[in-house]
Amino acid sequence: MPTPTTRSPRTPREDPRPAQSRALLIDAATRLLAEGGVDAVTIDAVTRTAGVARATLYRHFGTGTELVAAAFEKLLPPVPPAPARGTLRRRLLTLLVNQAQLIDHAPLQLTVLSWVGMSTLPAQPDDLPGIDQPDTARPWMRTLRRRIVELYRRPFDTILTGDDARKVLGADIDTTAALAQLVGPVVFNRLVTGLPNDETFCARVVDDFLAANTRRT
User: Fold this and answer.
1) Residue 129 carries which DSSP code?
2) What are the tens digits of pLDDT across the range 136-171?
């Protein structure tokens, strides 16, 4: 008798529609954000532009804040990596000048840093019911935060945890405090004074940081 053929069970095909509707919503929010800023990314504007129902938006994002976070992540440009050569001062100065230029010349960079800093506040009236939600209920916001850390902090960590920095600053340097001392003045200068973060300003920031943190022998 012939041996019966055993058929492999069929793997259910994933429904592509949720991914398609999510992509349409992010594309619409990204376009609105680039053209009109955060205020332009309203629930009605996004659903109208994307051609997607309001209920579908909330299934994907939960709140308008989550949708803005997804759009911001898509728009963030790359940040120059940490310089591989030079003295500790030169490497820190080059990196700080590069990041300062992004903040000065790309309004989006400044907007996203300010917006994330205020992320406990609702971006839209529709977000009011979600203010008390735990951070675990806001995956797009967490993803945006991680992306910002990857873009802005990692290059400084690369320098500050290297052998040259350890020799000058000591092995127990607090990289979080160091980042605040280096990048904080640049963001503050742009937000509060409106003055350009040129190389002279960045050099003063770096020199002040090194003077305060260089290990005494």
Assistant:
1) G
2) 456 777 777 777 777 788 899 999 999 999 999 988
Give the pair of three-digit tokens for residue 80.
Answer: 């120059």
Quote the pTM value. Answer: 0.66
**Separation CA 24–CA 51 (nearest Å):** 8
* Angstrom distance (rounded) from CA 208 to CA 188: 16
**């000065």: which residue's tokens?**
104
Three-state secondary structure string covering 35-67 = HHCHHHCCHHHHHHHHCCCHHHHHHHHCCHHHH
Nearest alpha carbon to residue 58 among 43, 80, 71, 77: 43
Task: Name 54's Cβ contacts closer than 8 Å, sequence gap at least 6.
Answer: 43, 44, 47
Question: In angstroms, what CA-CA distances link 120 with 48, 64, 94?
Answer: 27, 13, 33
